[in-house]
Design brief:
329 residues; alpha/beta; Isopropylmalate Dehydrogenase; 2 domains; 11-stranded mixed β-sheet; 47% helix; lipid biosynthesis
């Protein structure tokens, strides 16, 4: 399999994408990694011992974080993100990964890779960690701020297929993010979406409150991109703040430092459970290829994990399964 990586996108580019690709290339020698970017920048970072399954694809432009998405994609056809998307479109890569501008990646997915037949609005999806370490697949996480009930229905169906194909859950429970669990709760969007989900060929369990997500009371959580993005960032911020408080408390006295030394392995495992870097890689479901959004501040570890999750999606035929469900590409 071949995976194109936008080497110029993200807060820590190009170092993080290149270092993550080097680590992934060594662990999975059966995977060809195409680093897309400026050769004079990327090549020196690979060093003399570059694995044989890494190559560099030239792209002399870069889409910046503050670029207007549609304009950037159209006016920068030789940008690393657009070239990577074109590799997927032309069948030169099975998937692409980028930590760059989310709006631009969404646009590249739609304009370059192309929208899947009968899918009105593709959605970003990722795993939110849960206490039982299984996680909750959530979408949309920010691709579309203003969704219609029909979009939430399609998210639910795509998310259900994702959990079946990639995670092996035979009958995934689908929940609708809402302000209460009662059927009549919510705004007009969630009320109408609730009725559509009840009639859909999925295992819909009803409304789900945000406070219960970490308990994994559903396997797929459906929401519009505005609410989903707020939920995701709130959880990330809460996790970071919690560990800052714990660190300050554990170093506040000699006794606490001794206790921290004993608890360090357990605390490290807890941190890994909630660390977004361990769960990095959000596929844009609903386009004619596997387009994966990596966290904007991804380091090498996060990049490697995005590659790992992308490999799994390719191996399980995720895009083909969604295309079959919605009547083909």
């Amino acid at each position: 399999m071949k995976i194109a990586i936008d080497a110029m996108g993200g807060d820590l580019a190009p170092h993080a994408p290149v270092e993550g690709a080097l680590a992934a290339a060594k662990e999975w020698p059966d995977t060809q990694l195409l680093l897309v970017g400026k050769p004079d920048v990327v090549q020196p970072l690979l060093g003399s011992g570059r694995p044989s399954n890494i190559s560099v694809v030239e792209a002399l432009e870069t889409i910046e974080a503050d670029d207007e998405p549609v304009r950037a994609v159209r006016r920068k056809p030789n940008s690393s993100m657009v070239v990577a998307a074109r590799l997927v479109k032309e069948g030169e890569a099975d998937a692409m990964i980028s930590s760059g501008n989310t709006g631009a990646l969404m646009t590249a997915g739609l304009l370059v890779v192309g929208r899947m037949k009968d899918i009105e609005r593709p959605g970003l999806t990722s795993i939110i960690p849960s206490i039982d370490k299984v996680g909750v697949l959530t979408l949309d996480l920010g691709a579309n701020m203003d969704a219609k009930p029909e979009h939430l229905l399609q998210y639910a169906m795509m998310g259900s297929l994702y959990r079946q194909k990639v995670h092996g859950i035979s009958k995934p429970r689908v929940g609708l993010l809402n302000v209460g669990t009662e059927a009549g709760k919510g705004n007009e969007l969630t009320k109408v979406a609730f009725e559509l989900l009840e009639q859909a060929p999925i295992h819909f369990i009803g409304n789900v409150e945000a406070r219960d997500v970490l308990e994994r009371n559903c396997d797929v959580l459906v929401c519009d991109g505005f609410a989903g993005n707020i939920l995701l960032k709130a959880l990330e911020g809460a996790g970071d703040s919690l560990f800052k408080v714990l660190k300050a408390e554990m170093t506040s006295s000699l006794m606490n430092k001794l206790a921290a030394a004993v608890l360090k392995p357990s605390l490290r495992r807890v941190k890994q459970l909630v660390d977004y870097r361990e769960h990095n890689g959000a596929p844009l479901l609903g386009v004619n290829g596997l387009v994966v959004k990596s966290h904007g501040s991804s380091n090498a570890l996060a990049t490697k994990n995005a590659i790992r999750h992308t490999r799994t999606a390719i191996q399980n035929g995720l895009i083909a399964a969604i295309a079959d469900e919605f009547g083909g590409k």
